[in-house]
Amino acid sequence: MNVIEVKKLNKIYNESEVKVQALSEVDLAIEQGEFTAIVGPSGSGKTTFLNMLGGLDEPTSGEIHIGGTDIRGLSSSQLIDFRLRNIGFVFQAYNLIPVLTAKENVEFIMELQGVSKKDREARTMELLEAVGLKGRENSRPAKLSGGQQQRVAVARALASKPKFVLADEPTANLDSKSTENLLELMEELNRKENVTFIFSTHDQRVVNKARRVITLEDGKIIRDIRKNHTI
Questions:
Q1: Contact between 153 and 96 (Cβ < 8 Å)
Q2: For strand 196-200 and strand 35-39, is the pairing parallel, antiparallel, or unpaired?
Q3: Max CA separation in the chain (angstroms)
Q4: d(C-alpha 25, C-alpha 95), whole Å
Q5: What distance in Å separates the CA atoms of residue 8 and residue 49, rounded to the nearest whole number?
Q6: What parts of the chain have a pLDDT lower than 70?
Q7: pTM of structure
């Protein structure tokens, strides 16, 4: 069953009176439980495409349906609630809240969802240990390295048990061992909870794990390969 459907998606930015076509007539369908990597050179439209899927940026034209919901038809408040209930984000720039500890950053979305304190704390500690940050739960972002901040961001994205995770270069600042642990955690969630993962990545380790690899170039899908292996 297709849970993400994109039709004729276009995004044009006006930069210094020059139009830049970031996405051009993109058509794509993604099934529940897919583990997909979007690859391509810098400037190919990968981050723009993830931002469109997450409702963080408005397309110039086209349709985006997620879980049967036309997200372009939602009001701002409806879109915020939809993201809260359905989508986990891992941003390239981390986007952690600087005044909160690692633990509080991970708990934040669950608190908005109304998850009990006991359940929030249990899941937070489980995730921080899984991403290799046990013992750093009370550290604020400024006291963490870039790689550690990225791991907090990943734990935060997974904490709310989203149906979809959109991850923009999630392993960019991680060493080999941390990357391996992170991908194993994501694979486990994908397998056990049927969470759909869509990565924007340059990392061959992520590409190797993906079961589908979509190549963007100049805002267009030029290749879409489904692998025959399963996790």
A1: yes
A2: parallel
A3: 53
A4: 30
A5: 12
A6: 1, 16, 229-231
A7: 0.86
